[in-house]
Write a structure and sequence with these properties.
With 728 residues, the protein is of the alpha+beta class. The protein has 3 domains: 197 residues, 2-Layer Sandwich (Aldehyde Oxidoreductase, domain 4); 151 residues, Aldehyde Oxidoreductase, domain 4 (2-Layer Sandwich), CATH 3.30.365.10; 317 residues, Aldehyde Oxidoreductase, domain 4 (2-Layer Sandwich), CATH 3.30.365. It has 20 helices and 32 strands. The chain has a 7-stranded mixed beta sheet. Strands 16-25-24-23-17-32 form a 6-stranded mixed beta sheet, sandwiched between helices. Strands 26-27-28-31 form a 4-stranded mixed beta sheet. α2 packs parallel to α4 and α15 runs parallel beside α19. The protein starts with 24 loop residues before the first strand and ends with a helix. One of its GO terms (molecular function) is oxidoreductase activity. InterPro entries: Ald_Oxase/Xan_DH_a/b, Ald_Oxase/Xan_DH_a/b_sf, AldOxase/xan_DH_MoCoBD1, AldOxase/xan_DH_MoCoBD2, AldOxase/xan_DH_Mopterin-bd_sf, N-heterocyclic_Hydroxylase, OxRdtase_Mopterin-bd_su_IorB, TAT_signal. Pfam families: MoCoBD_1, MoCoBD_2. This is Molybdopterin-dependent oxidoreductase.
Length: 728
């Protein structure tokens, strides 16, 4: 895998070298073969403008020896986009996958962006499990357009009608049996004047797929296995200097450095760079920078987080929940108040979750080199990209975006944290001071924990109203916490047929940095919803599967995942003594239902998950083996966060600092088995990276309720909390 995407030399363009397309894909012929370019406008003048504005880039390149390079516009952080997106292109192009190599595309959203996140605005954004869904039509149409040009060029070369040609395995085939490989066709490639638009009917039917849905090894795994894969943290440039920041663990506090002269006199220290919330140290080596950082004598000011205690705030949240005035209404169907007023029975419960840290494997880091004249910059970073594909660097440096070249690298974990570009902006600020030296900014693990950006702490108050037949007629969900979508997403019940529903959010702000964490608000809110359903079933002496089956009657795809997981988990089958099963349903793009089997050590309070079963409907399955890997990883990360992980804040300061006091799930605690069944519903692909994680808490808590008759309502389920519940 090369660091730098191929850039073709600038050249003149004739009318035959670009075309208009309703799909937004402009194909043109370049010196080394077929080039396909996604342009943000469909008019001729607009295409010319884009070609003048950007270096010549491509979706695909074909060489005369038949080698094919397909560009991947998404970040690769272990989720498989380096394979799934090029695979879609190759499928429609009828490319020989064994001759395909994949590289990151340039970070140019006008060319490589998708409208899958925000209609009317092209973004390169690897978040929300929407990458495959967002690029599914883009990559397929581009591949089909490339295939059309190959067929058309072969037909012109042979002097035969286009209708007499077909393609397979990187060859164009004539009805007579004559063939020509894509590589041999390169010298004859031309774009027809009457190039048609590619419609849905021009794309392959699912039953004709030869790559999609099959077992295809991921393209980047060999390099990750042999150690040759390059992450940003691996990059070393000539004369590179190193920067670290002391941010403190009181979010937003301003620093006053008391020993500047002493630090500047230390061996290797080149410069001190003040920030509103930190002191930066630049040195010749990382060791020298870290050594100087330890010697900083900083007086910290107050901040909005001063005095905040995370474990005491729940009492305040309960008072907010008790207030008569509703918060911001996020979803309302019917009237939950009317349902409650005539209910035969009502159940109310509060559910809580503490802050959670991302704990991505690779520490945050970036490298930026500003040119000596300050008018251009090169950036090397592992990023989940964002609304600004140049990651905020142009604004900080005061230069045009086209003068910033971002070299995207593999990410050693993201989970939402690397869609926040604070670490890149910090590096840019320092690199501006150190130009033309390349600056490598490193966050230590302690930096990332103490000055982290966490999944929000929250309290959810749920109320379920039942009629005299035991049907749930009303369901209200009040979310209290900071962060808007970060805290309130996932509280809707679109697949449960409940006639009266209300979801509201009541804000409470504490000055703590927050960020998307895998599945965002679903982790806390689906936990509350699924536990509430089981508590209703428990009180009504009803099987929780039977309750969900009734609620899902009008949602056949959701119901199918429930029925399949009931089957594979042998839900009603015999169990070993001291064990129980729990069920939980989640919708996060994909639809999934999970069942887990647990036991509890009543002396220590430790919960052990023995088995987990999942049935998931993700629409068209592009990479089945990778989907299963995503589900397994999601379950394990969910277990870690639900059983172990907890950020606590006292007097505004984060109490944890590293893995010794922020424990992750250990190998010995992984389930004996995780079984996933994929239900292919022939719908457009949905994300799978965030489907499994939110189902874990509900499934474990529901199994615990079945096993002990007691309720777990506060994540994480630490042994201390479990013991307190067992002994209550």
């Amino acid at each position: 895998m090369k660091n730098d995407p191929k850039i073709l030399p600038e050249r003149g363009f004739t009318r035959r070298e670009f075309l208009k397309s309703s799909g937004g894909v402009a194909l043109f012929i370049g010196a080394s073969g077929l080039m396909s370019q996604l342009i943000s406008c469909s008019d001729t003048e607009g295409i010319k403008e884009q070609l003048e504005k950007h270096p010549i880039t491509a979706w695909v390149q074909i060489t005369e020896d038949g080698e094919i390079t397909i560009y991947n516009p998404a970040a690769e952080m272990g989720q498989g986009s380096m394979t799934s997106l090029p695979l879609l292109f190759a499928e429609e192009m009828d490319a020989d996958w064994s001759r395909v190599r994949v590289e990151f595309s340039p970070q140019e959203s006008d060319i490589y962006g998708s409208e899958g996140w925000a209609p009317g605005s092209k973004l390169m954004f690897t978040v929300g499990s929407r990458t495959t869904k967002a690029y599914y039509p883009v990559m397929r149409k581009a591949g089909a357009q490339a295939r059309y040009i190959l067929r058309s060029s072969a037909a012109d070369h042979w002097g035969v009608p286009l209708a007499e040609t077909s393609t397979k395995n990187s060859e164009v085939i004539h009805t007579s049996g004559k063939k020509i490989s894509y590589g041999d066709l390169v010298p004859y490639l031309t774009v027809p004047e009457d190039m048609p638009d590619i419609s849905e009917n021009d794309l392959k039917k699912q039953e004709d797929f030869e790559l999609v849905g099959k077992y295809i090894p991921r393209t980047e795994l060999p390099s990750k296995t042999d150690g040759s894969a390059q992450f940003a943290i691996d990059i070393i440039l000539p004369n590179m200097v190193y920067a670290v920041l002391e941010r403190g663990n009181l979010h937003g506090a301003s620093p006053t450095l008391l020993n500047e002269a002493e630090i500047l006199a230390m061996d290797g220290v080149l410069k001190l760079v003040p920030f509103d919330y930190a002191i930066g140290v630049v040195a010749k080596s990382l060791e020298q920078a870290l050594s100087a950082k330890k010697q900083l004598n900083i007086k910290w000011g107050d901040s909005p987080a001063s005095g905040f205690n995370s474990q005491e705030v729940y009492a305040t949240y309960e008072k907010i929940a008790n207030q008569a005035d509703k918060g911001r209404i996020l979803n309302e169907i019917g009237s939950v108040d009317n349902a409650a007023s005539i209910a035969a029975k009502s159940y109310t419960a509060d559910f809580k979750n503490d802050y959670v840290y991302h704990a991505q494997m690779e520490p945050l880091n970036a490298i930026i080199q500003v040119a000596e004249d300050g008018q251009s910059a090169e950036v090397w970073v592992g990023s989940q990209q964002g609304p600004d594909t140049k990651l905020g660097v142009p604004d900080i440096l005061g230069i045009p975006p086209e003068k910033v070249n971002v070299h995207l690298q593999y990410l050693g974990g993201g989970f939402g944290r690397r869609s926040m570009n604070d670490f890149v902006e910090e590096c840019a600020f320092i690199a501006k001071e150190m130009a033309p030296l390349a600056v490598k900014l490193m966050w230590t693990r302690e930096d990332d924990v103490g000055y982290g950006a966490f999944r929000p702490l929250s309290l959810q108050r749920l109320r379920a109203s039942l009629d005299n037949q035991g049907n749930i007629t009303g369901f209200s969900h009040c979310v209290i916490g900071d962060g808007g979508h970060l805290v309130a997403s996932g509280a809707r019940n679109d697949h449960y047929n409940i006639p009266n529903q209300l979801v509201e959010w009541r804000s409470a702000t504490h000055g703590v940095r927050l960020k998307h964490w895998r599945a965002v608000g679903h982790g806390a809110n689906k936990f509350a919803i699924e536990c509430m359903l089981d508590e209703v079933a428990f009180q009504q002496n009803m099987d929780p599967v039977a309750l969900r089956r009734k609620l899902m009657a009008n949602s056949p795809r959701a119901l199918a995942t429930l029925e399949k997981v009931v089957e594979i988990s042998n839900w009603n089958g015999p169990l070993k003594e001291g064990r129980a099963k729990g069920v939980s349903f989640v919708e996060h793009g994909s639809l999934g239902t999970g069942v887990c089997e647990i036991s509890v050590d009543r002396k220590t309070g430790k919960i052990r998950v023995h088995h987990f079963w999942i049935a998931v409907d993700a629409g068209v399955i592009v990479q089945p083996d990778n989907v299963k890997a995503q589900m397994e990883g999601g379950i394990i990360m969910g277990m870690s966060s639900v059983l172990n992980e907890q950020i606590t804040i006292k007097d505004g300061r984060v109490e944890q600092s590293n893995y010794h006091n922020y424990p992750l799930l250990r190998m010995q605690d992984v389930p004996d088995s995780i079984e996933t069944v994929l239900i292919d519903s022939n719908e457009i692909p949905e994300g799978v990276g965030e489907t499994a994680t939110p189902m874990v808490a509900g499934a474990i808590a529901n199994a615990f309720l079945k096993l002990t008759g007691k309720r777990l309502r506060h994540i994480p389920f630490t042994p201390e909390r479990v013991l307190a519940i067992l002994n209550s």
